[in-house]
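From the methods appendix. Each design record in this collection lists the tokenized structure first, followed by the designed amino acid sequence. Records were kept in a plain field format so they could be parsed without special tools. The example shown here is representative of the layout used throughout.

RECORD:
FOLD TOKENS (505 positions):
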């Protein structure tokens, strides 16, 4: 029998026993440790500190971490194996996942149904009574695929490797099956009456869940070979549901614009009104929809994961220890840290706030440079922003702003013609609108902007009830929406570069 070693995780109070030589990446993800770059050692997202035990740094870690950090015991989990008994300070807690309890109109039907929002980072599932619309149970978890990268392109690159796509498909089917089991575990009668299940997600999640060939999404023009509705039986997925239950992953809208955005349209009902509306979903990718019942345009922007703390030197998800808000009080920074604990990083909303404050105090110039030739700006020890961090935010916000401009031109409309801007997703729910305007990401009056939470889950529930009632708007919406591939637009790069700079005031 191979020798074992023990790993104690502080402050979680957990003790693991694993085979000697086990990669830490294989065991720590489920305890909250994040691997934004997929375990390549290119970022510091999986930093942890050795409290006891021997964990010598590799040469690659010596290049990524400073001498002071190494001396203090900091290591990159993705580049370490457990060869000795260890006590590790992981300092990671589960981040809250945005669920939805918004009331909506529906036609009653018999039985029960399940709606699942399959996000790149997080999963949320609900079971509902189709007669009353009541939510009977909620289950959430982190997407287990994230151990292979925080953003969708990291996921795509991993899927291209031998057996990579099968591995990611198996991971997500097992995890969603576990959520389904937990939703129905307390009632055999309820389980037997689950008639429908609806899943929504972006195009990459659609492919990695449904076994659709991922290769076309890895290169230009990034168009899937199949983006329609996928249907499954419970046995195909290994889900503990009756054989008569029908399961569907809703269709995508084109390119990287998936069924989570289709669900967002259903939730905001922009396809039913005459007012010109804008739907923006800011997550590990950025999707935009502009239109009304006369027609819509949609696009996906390569915003990157900066809005969720990805590719930021001390970036993290919005969990305990993250600086989530920054404001100015008498020209001094006041940072809010989630959990009222010592800071250990900064999440997306805090990043936007911090840069907005830096612009207002002229620590950061309109070009994005930190004044005085400095390469970093200390926010709240030990958390600081680097010049590269600010550049990542510029790239992200520039992609969103340029995408909006391209869709407006395709529509022949101006910013002032837009009556309502819906901000979807967890980031959109927590972002400070004044800060978003200050950095030039959303150049609209605040009274027009409405955070709408998890529209993907709400739209999945609406689609679930439509299906149970024998009615669906999915193909109707797809028939009036035009996907705009931004990379192919000759003006996009020009507008992108222009939008990267920050407003003077």
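DESIGN:
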């Amino acid at each position: 029998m191979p020798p074992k070693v023990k790993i104690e995780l502080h402050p979680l109070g957990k003790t693991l026993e694993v085979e000697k030589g086990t990669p830490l990446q294989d065991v720590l993800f489920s305890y909250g440790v994040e691997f934004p770059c997929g375990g390549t050692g290119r970022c510091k997202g999986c930093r942890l500190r050795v409290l006891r035990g021997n964990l010598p740094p590799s040469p690659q870690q010596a290049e990524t971490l400073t001498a002071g950090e190494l001396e203090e015991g900091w290591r990159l989990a993705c580049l370490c194996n457990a060869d000795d008994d260890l006590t590790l300070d992981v300092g990671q807690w589960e981040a809250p996942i945005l669920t939805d309890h918004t009331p909506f109109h529906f036609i009653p039907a018999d039985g029960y149904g399940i709606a699942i929002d399959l996000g790149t980072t997080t999963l949320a599932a609900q079971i509902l009574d189709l007669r009353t619309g009541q939510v009977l149970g909620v289950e959430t978890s982190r997407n287990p695929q994230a151990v292979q990268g925080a953003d969708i392109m990291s996921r795509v690159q991993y899927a291209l490797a031998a057996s990579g796509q099968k591995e990611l498909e198996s991971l997500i089917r097992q995890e969603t099956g576990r959520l389904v089991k937990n939703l129905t575990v307390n009632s055999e009668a309820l389980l037997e009456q689950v008639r429908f299940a609806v899943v929504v997600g972006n195009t990459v999640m659609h492919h990695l869940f449904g076994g659709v060939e991922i290769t076309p999404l890895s290169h230009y023009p990034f168009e899937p070979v199949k983006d329609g509705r996928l249907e499954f039986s419970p046995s195909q997925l290994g889900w503990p549901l009756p054989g008569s239950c029908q399961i569907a992953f809703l269709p995508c809208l084109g390119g990287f614009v998936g069924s989570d955005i289709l669900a967002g349209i259903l939730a905001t009902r922009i396809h039913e009104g005459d007012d010109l509306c804008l739907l923006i979903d800011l997550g590990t990718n950025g999707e935009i929809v502009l239109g009304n019942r006369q027609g819509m345009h949609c696009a996906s922007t390569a915003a990157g994961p900066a809005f969720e703390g990805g590719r930021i030197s001390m970036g993290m998800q919005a969990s305990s220890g993250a600086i989530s808000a920054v404001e100015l009080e008498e020209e001094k920074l006041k940072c809010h840290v989630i959990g009222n604990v010592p800071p250990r990083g900064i999440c997306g909303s805090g990043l936007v706030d911090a840069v907005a404050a830096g612009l207002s105090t002229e620590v950061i110039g309109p070009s994005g440079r930190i004044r005085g030739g400095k390469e970093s700006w200390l926010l709240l020890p030990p958390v600081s922003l680097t010049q590269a961090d600010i550049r990542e935010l510029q790239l992200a916000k520039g992609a969103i702003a340029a995408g909006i401009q391209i869709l407006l031109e395709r529509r022949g409309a101006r910013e002032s013609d837009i009556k309502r801007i819906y901000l979807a997703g967890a980031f959109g729910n927590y972002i400070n609108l004044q800060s978003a305007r200050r950095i030039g990401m959303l150049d609209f009056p605040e009274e027009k902007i409405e955070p709408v939470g998890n529209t993907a889950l709400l739209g999945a529930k609406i689609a679930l009830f439509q299906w149970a009632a024998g009615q669906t708007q999915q193909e109707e919406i797809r028939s009036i929406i035009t996907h705009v591939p931004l990379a192919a637009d000759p003006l996009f790069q020009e507008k992108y570069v222009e939008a990267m700079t920050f407003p003077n005031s």
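APPENDIX NOTE: The chain has a mean pLDDT of 89.
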